[in-house]
Amino acid sequence: MTDVQEAAATAGREARAMDLSVVVPLYNEEASVDALHDEIARAVGALGVEHEIVFVDDGSADATVAHLKAIRARDPRVRVVRLRRNYGQTPAMQAGFDVSRGRVVVTMDGDLQNDPADIGRFLAGIDEGYDLVCGWRKDRKDKLVSRKLPSRIANRLISLMTGIKIRDNGCSLKAYRAEFVKRTTLYSEMHRFIPAMMSMSGCRYKEIVVHHRARQFGSSKYGISRTWKVFSDLFAIKMITGFTTRPSLWFGLLSVPFFLLSAAFLGLSAYHYWRAGSSGSSVVYPSVTVLLVFASMHLLLVGMIAELVIHVGDYEEAESIVARVDLAESGGR
Q1: 205-253 residue pLDDT tens
Q2: Taking each helix axis from N to C terminus, what angle separates 3-14 and 89-99, rounded to the nearest 10 degrees?
Q3: What is the edge-to-edge ordering of all strands in the sheet holding 78-83?
């Protein structure tokens, strides 16, 4: 059990049931974190639900942690999770999910572009019977070339490959039914693909238009360079969602092009040998044929090993990324 999971289990035993957990990953947001807390507290307080606000500091190098300590000292509903270093938004979200105690978990960015006033509409969607409610930044206040255009292309590809018809997978403002999201393990940039992974458990989802605001402080932590990470993760999520129980089928399909190419080069080798004879034949075609056959067999063997991993399981405990978990007392101990 990791540090985060142990803290979550302890907190769950000590605390009464929560209606809502608001999880906010932060990285160098010293200028916005105080205003963000005030907005969340005001918006959620008006809903009259038992709640907590979980701020996850993703190894900030500025005064974000100092601001969080001051916020936690004056608001008992605030909990602070600190990561050892900057791991990225997805591991930060996972840490927040691990320690959250609410029956509904709402995630949002820490840069004030998401509007906490929308949280009530997300809770209403969960109360309607949905397991996941996604935000759609229909009128997005970001730069066209570096942010909006790559996002539109990525969303189309994600919808095409996963079959999940969501127009804005990159919007962090989402609401999850806790029993679903706590069964989802995230890594790399996988927070964009949570709807696709949750769909494997048969979750019901909907998308609602949210208010998106222009950035007030600092600069975006993401750029067009992350596009390649999204593409590689999309390839991985397609394998996970389509071939989870039969990885050998996935690797078998990948081996087919190599097998067909090896057959083609074998035919070219035989034709060249027939035309030129043994003295004038080239070693290029046979060599390429052997390499392609080796690649095809290698993929088939990887598929067989993956089948063993699926059935036997991986019991190795993951390394903890949490240096410290500050748990605010919502009730007396």
Answers
A1: 999 999 988 877 766 655 555 666 666 777 777 766 666 667 777 788 8
A2: 30
A3: 205-209, 132-136, 174-177, 102-107, 18-26, 51-57, 78-83, 322-326
